[in-house]
Design brief:
Layout: H1 4-16, H2 18-27, H3 33-50, H4 55-108
Helix pairs in contact: 2-4, 3-4
Length: about 110
């Protein structure tokens, strides 16, 4: 069993690593993220359990960490999709303007 100082360092490292884990999970295909999150939860659970904590506190801590991780995954996935959504909107606008110009040119030739 680790000393209290070592336990705190380990738990702090887990929490500090949440953004990096979230980045990796967010990069995975959306349909596979659930399994990745389950694997992370099991890993966190085993880590804390191996430090000697009892089931109740372990489950509470893992639940809190997973809530934070899931929030971070959603944030990072949204951030990654935002540029694509902007690009898509710009392309759709340009296509619409092009269609309008083509129609206008076609009509001007009808005169």
């Amino acid at each position: 069993m680790a000393s209290i100082s070592e336990e705190e360092e380990i738990l702090e490292a887990v929490v500090a690593g949440i953004p990096r884990v979230a980045e990796v999970v967010a990069s995975i295909a959306e349909e596979d993220r659930g399994r990745a999150l389950e694997a992370a939860a099991r890993s966190y659970w085993e880590t804390v359990r191996n430090l000697g904590y009892e089931e109740g506190p372990v489950q509470s801590w893992v639940s809190a960490v997973m809530l934070r991780l899931q929030t971070e995954v959603k944030k990072q996935a949204s951030t990654k999709q935002r540029p694509l959504k902007i690009l898509h909107a710009e392309l759709m606008q340009a296509a619409s303007e092009l269609d309008n110009n083509v129609i206008d040119i076609g009509r001007s030739g009808e005169r």
